[in-house]
Structures are given as structure tokens and as C-alpha cells.
Amino acid sequence: MKIIDIHTHSSSGNNEYLELKSFFHKSYIPETEFFSVGIHPWHAEKAVTNTLTDELRPKAHKAFAIGECGLDKSSSCSFDKQREVFEAQIKISEDLKKPLIIHAVKTYPDIIALHKKHQPRQSWIIHGFRGNMQTMKACTDHGIYLSYGALLMRGIETHETVFKNTPANLLFLETDESNISIRKIYERAAYIKGIAFDDMVTQINQNFKTIHHNAY
Ligand SMILES: [Zn+2]
Question: How many A from CA of 138 to the centre of ligand 1?
Fold first, then answer.
């Protein structure tokens, strides 16, 4: 069974790992990649309708998931534009039957509101989740998956408590841009959850099968 990294921007070259590599819509994507592709909210300003259809859709067809895409209140890009571009990608995720990888900064309530509005059939995964207990509950009550990463390594008690309480069937782990190995993040995550490393690997493989299955 492979150790799944649900969101990364680089390949480790280690074949113990299954890495879902995230590409921006303008990137060249080699044939051999296992990947997600999306228009990041930082790039939303320039994304016009034909960017979506001409640049994103052909790549999206070959992707495992759509994203990262989402909403970011720390971005200089207009929020209305970000929402428009995000909703267009929600539509692509539903049309192509592929999970959605979400980047959310100070916008968890907006993401939940859009989940209510669109009632998607595809799985939504908020990557790099760092919300509080209440936000975690609100997301998971809607069946939104939460992916945790290198922040778990810093010994932040409040964050660890939120992670510990996140339902196991809605969890993912990731490296994102960190240099810490995904194995180390699994070890830490298993320790915080109080379960065996292998059980953590098995659980996340199960979750991965579920989002894949939902996609068909
Ligand atoms: Zn990322």
C-alpha cells in the first residue's frame, strides 16, 4: 500500500509514495504525471472564459482532480473575480466527474456557502487546513475532506486538537511546498491520533478510494 500525498508541488521520486502533484493551468504537464490542475485564486484576475475552456479543460481531462483552486482573502485579486473563476472550476469538476482540491485562506465560510449552493456530487478537499474546531466541524458536517500538512510538525496544541478530532474518514495528508517528507507527516499524524502508522496509511488509502469512487 502506498503512502498518499494528496497535494504537492514537487515529486520525491520515491515509489513508496503516491503523490498527487498540483499544476497551474499554464504549466507544461508531462504525460507520466499523476496530477491535479487548476487556476489558483492568485491567478484568477487574468482568467477569462476562454482561458478556462482553451487552457484548463484539455488538461483537466487528463487530471485526477481539479485544483488547486479556491478563494483567498489575502490575494490582491478581486474577490468577485476569484469567486467567478472558482465556480467555473466547480462546474468543470462536476462535468468531468473529478474531485476538487481547494485553496482557502480566510474564506472557510465562503467555501461552505458555495458547497451548500452547488450541492456537488464530487468530493471537495480543502488542502492545508488550519481552521479552528468550529470550522472543522462545519466543513466535515458537509462532507468536505480536510488535508493537513507540515503545520502538524510544529507542536501547536490547538491545531493538533482540531486534527485529532477530525473524522478519520474525511482526512488527507500532504506536503504541499514543505521539504518534510510525507512519511514524517504520517508518523506525526498517527502519533497525534494515537493510532499505528500503518493504520493511518490504510485509512487514507480508504479515503482515496472513496473520492475516486465518487468520481464515477
Ligand atoms: Zn499548494
Answer: 23
